Amino acid sequence: MWWHQHNLCFRHPVEEDYSGDLEEKVATIAETDESAESEGVIDSHKRREILSRRPSYRKILNELSSDVPGVPKIEEEKSEEEGTPPNIATMAVPTSIYQTSTGQYIAIAQGGTIQISNPGSDGVQGLQALTMTNSGAPPPGATIVQYAAQSADGTQQFFVPGSQVVVQDEETELAPSHMAAATGDMPTYQIRAPTTALPQGVVMAASPGSLHSPQQLAEEATRKRELRLMKNREAAKECRRRKKEYVKCLESRVAVLEVQNKKLIEELETLKDICSPKTD
DNA sequence: CGCACTGAACGTCAACTAGC
DNA sequence: GCTAGTTGACGTTCAGTGCG
Q: Is the residue at A270 inside a domain?
């Protein structure tokens, strides 16, 4: 209700960076008869227990938004706030959009076209298109990019069908940012055969049965760990993004409810004056 | 200019939840 | 029960800012 009526979730300067305080503030305003003593009573362990068992930000916001039509949901992929480059949307209907660890976007269009864009650059300037010439058209609905990773030497690789790898050129990758800006800030990419060393943490569907020696098992364990760390790294980024969005929404709600509260108090005062006129 | 301080962003770990 | 995803906590890094 409040969500739709007051058009929340707009950008709002962050004044408090602690969502816990903010949630408490919202709850206090929304439910004026709620006791405020709980914060001081619970110890840190219990507090952590409570916090850790709270549903995810995505779930909270989506549940809130499901009550009210027109409320933006937190999507699986990038939200509009994160700024999916508009140039990608204008291209030939990408089936998948991925973001690299450096913030660049990889859009996979139907027919095997790979579009790479920089979120910082505007317009079509930051967009490149790589067309797969020898991999053939992917089957409908197939996931084209199998993985995005950063190799040990710092270059980025994206695995595409046909056992190929899209690799960012070392020259542009290693070039200082001011040099990249001077040259139009356009990193270049190559499609290579995967004969080059795989980045750490990427497992290319090796069957467990093919591992024999302890050394291979150790390497497999290391790869699994690297993969897990890499996934968790990305998950943490996404979680922080959702949390920021969630906090912004709460701040917006606080602002709206404060205004609402003020109006109601004024209305109450007016009604009081009407109902009990002074008799002097 | 050098230093201390601060806030934001990040990476990692651990605990937990949800889906299978 | 297992696995992947989520998120709080903690430590680290880095850029910005104020002060002597």
A: yes
Q: Report pLDDT digits (tens) over A65-115.
A: 554 444 445 444 333 333 333 333 333 333 344 444 334 444 443 333 344
Q: What is the pLDDT of residues A27-49, one digit of tens each?
A: 444 443 333 333 333 333 343 34
State whether the Cα torsion A179-A121-A76-A168 is positive or negative.
Answer: negative
Domain range holding A230?
A: 214-279
- Answer yes or no: is A87 within a domain: no
A192 touches strand B (CB under 7 A): no
Tell me which of A56 and A206 has the higher pLDDT: A56
Position A15 scores a pLDDT of 32
pTM for this model (two decimals): 0.48
User: Residue A149 forms beta bridges with which residues?
Assistant: A157
Residue A262 phi/psi, 5° resolution? -60, -45
C1' of C9 to CA of A66 (Å): 31
Q: Mean pLDDT over all residues of chain A?
A: 51
Rounded to whole angstroms, the distance from the CA of residue A224 to the C1' of nucleotide B11 is 17
Q: CA–CA distance from A45 to each of A27, A101, A219 (Å)?
A: 22, 34, 38
| CA A152/CA A132 separation, integer angstroms | 26
Nearest nucleotide (CA of A58 to C1') = C6
Query: Has residue A244 been placed in a domain?
Result: yes
Measure the CA–CA gap between A244 and A249, rounded to whole angstroms.
9
> Domain tally for chain A?
1
The answer to the question of residue A220 being in a domain is yes
Neighbours of A128 (CB within 10 A): 16
